[in-house]
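User: Is it possible to get a 3D structure for a protein together with its bound compound? The compound here is NDP. I've pasted both below.
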Amino acid sequence: MNTINLFSLVGKKAFITGGAQGIGKSAALAFADAGADVAIVDVDMGKAEGTAAELRAKGVRSMAVRCDVTDPADVDSMVGRVVEEFGTIDIAFNNAGICVNESAETMSFESWKRVLDINLTGIFLTARAAGRVMIAKGSGSIINTASMSGHIVNQPQPQCAYNASKAGVILLTKSLAVEWAHFGVRVNSISPGYIGTAMTLKASQWIPSWEAATPQRRMGKPEELVSALIYLAADSSGFTTGTDLVIDGGFTCV
Ligand code: NDP
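Assistant: Yes, that's possible. Here is the predicted structure of the complex:
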């Protein structure tokens, strides 16, 4: 094996949900740098088109697709469009997610359901649609964004729906990995700690306590996740499936 090419994604076709900004956008730029064609999938078409245009300006083949990951018809049609444009799908990064900070005793049913629908059902729907394409050709890598919140309970902010959804993502990932291993389809997840994106920066009142609770005493940057994502996406991680990579500055060690 040529070690220089261990992290090559040349010729690979990828889509990234929640790809317009934050962690998804960083992954899009990195996958493209590693040689992949990348479809940017998001609910906000304006933002998604902006990110896809940024990639195209670098000479990368990229498209934007509007898709609400909670809608099965939307998801199937998004996967159909990516296959139509790129010919196939090798990498699915199922990353769209939201967080709601509400106390359990006052949380509305709608809030609970929305978080579970986007963060867990959305991952099932996009993994199922991409998985069907990958199973048919006998290869593919699916990466789901879980969170350290699937392992621990964050403080001081209340977020029971988020934590439960992310714990679900970790075991959904392992379940799909086992079901689809014999088809040549790998399924893994990442569990980031606090990362500076729109999701966390809007909750700035809690940042000092998050940093104090992290052994590295800081939040991570989206770019600090991309080497792990490229590893999971690349063929060189061929024996890695059902794994959850925790990337959290040491948060879950203490
Ligand atoms: P951002 O809010 O920056 O990005 C999330 C993206 O997902 C947005 O573009 C958002 O669009 C999109 N999105 C939301 N709902 C849907 C939907 N129904 N269908 C399609 N797209 C949707 O967050 P991050 O980049 O920080 O988060 C990415 C993932 O990483 C999430 O799953 C999050 O839970 C996870 N994560 C984040 C951590 C962090 O500290 N930031 C830590 C651990 C995990 P719009 O803005 O228009 O709603």
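DSSP finds eight helices and seven strands in the chain. The chain has a mean pLDDT of 97.
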